[in-house]
Structures are given as C-alpha cells and as structure tokens.
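new request in #modeling-help
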Amino acid sequence: METQFSGYQVQTEFFEGPLDLLLHLIRKNKMNIAEVRLSRITSEYLSYLEGKRGINPSRESEFLMTAATLIYIKSRSLLPKPEEPGEDSPEKRLIHTLIEYEKIQKISHLLQEMEYTELLLWRRLERSEDFANREYELKEVSAFQLAEIFFDIVKKKENEQFLYIASKNYSIAEKQAEILSLLESGGFLDFTVYVAKLDSVEEVVVSFFTLLEMVKRHLLVAVQEQLFGTISLYRNEAGRLEN
Amino acid sequence: MSNDTLIRRIALIEAILFVSKDPVEPARVMEFLGIADIGEFEALLAAWEKEYLQERPERGLLLKRSGGGLQLVTKPELHDELKRFFTIRQAAKLSLASLETLSIISYRQPATLAEISDMRGVNSTGPIKSLLQKKLIKITGRKKVPGLPALYATTQEFLVYFGLNDLSELPSLEELTELFEEKEQPSLFKSES
C-alpha cells in the first residue's frame, strides 16, 4: 500500500455531496449536530459553493439544492413566527438527515478499514495482472449482432471463386442435427470458424437461419466474450429440458 | 483417531481449499471426511491453522473464514512483495461513493436507489452500477410502490470481500458510535487551514 493508512481518514479532492460539506462545517465549528443552528453555517456553506472549494462539478446541482434549503431555513428563522411544537420544520428534517448521514460515514470508514485489511490477503485467481483485467462476464448477444457477423462473412464468401459441381439442398432440420452433434463433441461452437468452413453462400444462409431458430427456441445460447469478438454458441441446458 | 488419520485429513482439507476459488462450506468438508461432530472438526481446523500455518514462518498461507466458508489466503505480511511479483501498481479499492452506498445497503437492506440517494444527499446511480458490476450487491426484488423500483441487497461476494461470515458480524450502530468516539479527529480534510 503506497499511501499510509491512518485510521478512517477520508482522502478525497471533493466533498461527496452537500451533506458531507455540512458535516465538515459542523465539525470545523465544533458544533454538536443535534443542537446545530443551521442558519449559522449557511453563509460559510455558500462561500464554499461560490469559491467552488471542494465542490465536485458534476454534483453542483445537488449542492445548490441544499443551499436553497439552507437559505429557506435561514429566512424562516428571521421571521418572528413562533415555531409550533411537533412541527416537522425543514431544519429538523435536514438535521435528521445529517445525523443519519454521519452514521453512514462511520460505517463507510469501518468498511474502508475492513477492505484495507482484506486486500492484504490474496486469494486464488485474484488480483494478478492477468485476472485483474479479465472480464468474467459473458454477454449474451442479440440476433442483430449475429446478423452483423453473418453479413461480414457473406461478403467474404462473395469474393471467393467457387466451382460448382452439383448443387446440394440444405434443410434446417439437417443443419440443426449437424450443429447439435458438433456441440456434443466440441462443447461449444465458434460461430466465425464454423461459418468460414461452409462451402457456399447458400449453406451459410441456411446455417445462419438454423442458428437463429435454435437461439430463438432456447436450444442454444449465443455468447460474445468481448466487444467485436467472436461469438460462441453453447447448448442451453435449461432449454433442452423445456423442448 | 490415529495420528496418521489426522495428518491425512489435514492434507485433504488443504488440498480441497487449494483447488477451490471460492470459500468452501465447512459442512461439505465435514461430510466428505466423515466427521459428524462440529466440535471435532473445529478442533482439527484449529490445530491445522495453528501448528501448520500460523506458527510456520516458512509457510505463506493462512486459513481464512469468510462468507461462511473456509479459504486459503496469503499471509498479510507478504502483500507488498506479492504486489511486486505480480507488478500490480495499486489494488483497486472502492471509491468513497461506493463505500457510502454499500454502508446504506448493508444496514438497511433491501434498499431502493431513491432511498440511498436521499440518505447520501446525492444521486447514487453511478455507485450502484459499479457495485452491481463488482457483484457486491444484487437486485432482490421490486418495491411495491409506484414505479416498482429495484431493491438492492448485499451478496455473498460482499461478505467475502470484507472478510465477514454474515451480516451480523457488522457492529451495531450503537457499537459503531463508541468505536469511533475514541478516535475522533479534529479535521477530516487536510486541505483545511
């Protein structure tokens, strides 16, 4: 760990949000949250906002919203209207939120400490460079992505010269049986490799429709491991039971 | 039990944990080894942990219980050197926003995005997404209010990540206050003069 870890210190350029800034001001002025007079720290809050000190630019609207609440609270406190007992004033509500938020901060710091201790312990298949950058999640691909790859392949096939001796008729049923037997032996099918091996555009078209049909009937799952990567086809075990 | 059996059992447990990526349920190991008494099993683990791992400076591993399971982990003092060997610059730590979001979910689960954002005072879509991706939280259902917002809860991975066996190991809010009262710091922000 490069940075020295000292307790639950917060290391951030920005305040996480308006509540974070308010709590900071309360602590700075050594006030007790439960008895804090928000109207007293309003001007300080506004000066932070004006000078954009520690204000995360992408969170500015949220800081402004709280500023509006603070000004409203201040304006209310200036009016000689006696506060009705039991009334849920905006000040009380904000203080309640602050008290809750302080708890959240404490839990966060605790979690941070726990994370720190745990990160010292290395586990299997973790945090080595190879694994750190690896995306484990396989994304299911849509028919559109399959179609895109299909047109790519057809284009390649078009440029090839074929010598037709006899035309063969392909049926979806035959293709399905063929694909299933390939899956049975290989476990999975690389879509690009499979289609590249086919003899004619006609066969590619029939194969592709068969694949789409099988995906639609949940016999197959089409999975793309990375963006623009090849698409692998797996048997859908759950679908197999249904059909 | 003969000493040979003991040694054999320890060797087996070590081998099973070595191969496993995720924490292994103790019940499964017990059943496999034919141990019915949890006390006996715990004594076996304790003996192994102490005599064969902890007290052996030449060993690089420790037995860790997290997420309710058993796991082999490296000794903490090896961290820096391991980092050097695997050329890792900085362990990917969670952002403060993610930690805050997790704090709320871990104590108030299941919680909705609106509840979390409200408590944090900022929109929390970002951290929710990143926590879902890291599998530290999951959607457990939908709240029966207008819009049917998703309800988020912590996962098994959350427990393992923070070295917990179950959520009850997190201190209560009262304990938490005491925990931090002694350590209260004058200022949390260095930049402040």
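bot summary: Chain B has two domains: 3-85, 96-175.
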